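As a next step, the fold was encoded as tokens, giving this record:
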Amino acid sequence: MVTKSITREFLRFLFFKEESPISRYITAIFGFTVSVNNKEANQLNKQILVIGNGFDLSCGLDSRYSDFFEYRFIELFGKQKSHEQIRLWLNSQLGRDAWSNKRIDYFKVNQNKWPKGITRWDCIFLFAEEFLNNAEVKQWQNIENIIFNVVSFVLLPNDGSKSFQSNLHFKESCDGEIYKQKQFIQMVNSFAGAEIDSLEHKANNLLHDLNDFEKVFAKYIVKECDKEKNYRGEAGELLKALANWYVEKDNQLDVISFNYSLDARFGQMMKDDQFRLNSWTNIHGVANYNNKNAKHYINSIQGTRLKKLPSPIFGIDNHDILEDSFDNDLRLLFTKSYRLVNSEIHSQISSSICSDCDAIIFYGHSLGRADYSYFETLFDDSNLYHSKTRLIFYYFEGDTPLENRERYTSNVVSLLTNYGQTLSSIHGENIVNKLVLEHRLEVLPYPKF
């Protein structure tokens, strides 16, 4: 039976050891160096393209979390102060009894002393940079993991009935990592509300401020899209490259975007350029959610009557909750599925995009656990195990192509293995082997465009 975690050593031997006969065999069928002949390529007439932040980065958009946070930091505090100075200042503003007075919501008490518009999550992420390992706060999937850990620290009952094992990595210090973790937990609880507040009240505080934090992010993305004049043109060329449009113009594409930048208006622009785009869906909302012209135009081209466009959401995956859930688990309020229920996003999704799909292509997505639920739905609806649907995963080579290929392949295997475990009645645990042997799985470097 395939286990949940595949070690790096095994992956290195299986895929990357040049002199190994089995690696040459697996490489040939797995798709690292295999070239698809034109006949096969032309047969991929109906494709689904899943794009993540790597797509925007490839097209010149400064959409990394680090880019956004630097913008937010300057917006709140100006350029003259360092992160360390701000953290020390926030600590001093909390006062000597910051961690002891159970009746005070320190964020609310000190909010008027701090920059206008600051949220609880600004403070939490600022302190996360101080307490957590540098790698923890660089990527979007890690930010979602921080959200999961924070709401678990705050919202799990403290009566000992539920334990939580954090997966965050803290900076080393002379006092040890455990001490750093205790400090961080104490800090996030202080920013969630008063100690005597109910868990429901703290959940409302965090959710309200997360909404505000997301709107600030939307404003940033709109600004970046307007600033990068070549962004939309680059995005169009990349879409054409991924769909093999210049070779086969009959290929049809449905785009599922985990980004907030481009929306259905861009999809219409591609259609006007004779590109066969069936649908464009922004899974987690759009940055231009409060743009009335955008709303009217999208309603007109889609034949919908949306009262509003969905605003961006950050969130956690149901998998992280359901594994140890209990009655009235308030963390469910922060899952992406729960937060999408009252949005208009569902009405934008075509219900038939997975039927008779020839290929599902992933570009620029980290394949983090927070989005597993969406991928499982795609795989189910396309009947992945029994169909002929191919999976094509593109990864960024960067300065360390072998390392990045290994890391991304590990993410691919983890995703598919996790999905296979939901198909136990049909030997789903063997799905990776099945896809490889049927030539339906490829992991390839980003194409040039």
Notes: Residues 65-222 form one domain. The chain has 19 helices and six strands.
